[in-house]
Amino acid sequence: MAKNVLVTGGAGYIGAHACKVLAAAGFTPVTFDNLTTGWAEAVKYGPLVQGDLMNRADIDAALAEYQPVAVMHFAALSLVGESMKDPGYYWRVNVNGALNLLEATVAAGIRNFVFSSTCATYGDQDGVLLNEETPQRPINAYGGSKLAIEEMVRNFGAAYDLNHVIFRYFNVAGADPDAEVGEQHTPETHLIPLMLDAVAGKRDALTVFGTDYPTRDGTCVRDYVHVMDLVDAHVLGLKWLLEGKESRVFCLGTGNGFSVTEVIEASRAVTNRDVPIVYGDRRPGDAVTLVSGSEAAIRDLGWQPDRSTLRDMIGDAWRWAQKPAFTK
Questions:
Q1: Are the C-beta atoms of 9 and 38 separated by less than 8 Å?
Q2: Which of 24, 37, 155, 183 is deepest in the core (most CB within 10 A)?
Q3: In angstroms, how far is CA 319 from the centroid of its own chain?
Q4: Is the pLDDT confidence value at 2 over 70?
């Protein structure tokens, strides 16, 4: 009998890739998504339940029908800039949605929960290798809401024996190497797809926000992790829980930071095309440098971020960019 896993946000970028890897590992991913930002066309590896985390009855019905062995929670509002302009929206949707999901999960007798958190919970700690022990000081409502959910997950773990793995990950990039699923946001805010749109002529230019940061070339530095490496870690985390191991937090990155300028140079090498650029001011809420210390995931989960090179991430994203876009 197939082991069902409820995947919230499974019609989105990371969730859809997670569904592919879960299916390959012998699980049946059950996508739970309201399709506000996700795409029904991205749901290829298991059933789709169109529901909303803000409606507890939708969650209860999905859990009763599919009786999953675990819940993998990706669904969230995730735009830093938007969270700075409308923090209440982020607190209301992210936190209340997660609370509904947690309460429904324990009520259904499910005891395994994998949560998609973020390095945005750390805030701006320049020059610090961010690991599981680093103090969390978010500087925007997106990071703040994710930190609050982490605390809720721990509270539910203590009160209801909800075994959990929390992943704090860094800048996710790339696409499925088979180009079955990939990154498509409306609006798009991530550097690599924006850059490739500019390369392909789908937008006039890539805007580089800030060139006066205290970094080696004045642009922000981020730790980029390939989406397939990232979702591999989620399957390892799920297996960790199903084997009865203790609840844990793991950071997911490579330990290497690349500046915006370095990513642009790598794109020129991969695509053999120039990147049209315009320069803008810094964006509120953007940290200077975010780099992960991921030794725990490598040591304890056996995780290997083998595809997380700029060449592979940009190359896979470029291959996906050549395909027709998802449509509603």
A1: yes
A2: 183
A3: 20
A4: no
The span from the CA of 299 to the CA of 316, in Å, is 27
With beta carbons less than 8 A apart as the criterion, state whether 300 and 136 touch: no
Superfamily of domain 191-222+255-321: UDP-galactose 4-epimerase, domain 1 (3.90.25.10)
Q: Which residue has the tokens 């990154």?
A: 183
Q: Is the pLDDT of residue 328 over 80?
A: no
In the prediction, which pLDDT does 124 show? Answer: 81
Catalytic residues: 142
Beta strands, E only, the chain:
3-8, 27-33, 48-50, 70-73, 112-118, 129-130, 163-169, 171-173, 206-209, 221-222, 224-226, 248-252, 258-259, 277-280, 289-292
Q: Where are the domains of the chain?
A: 3-173+223-252, 191-222+255-321
- Higher pLDDT among residues 245 and 323, named by residue: 245
pLDDT confidence bin for 187, thresholds 50/70/90: confident
- Residues for the chain: how many in total? 328
The fold of 3-173+223-252 is: Rossmann fold (3.40.50)
Instruction: Give the pTM.
Output: 0.94
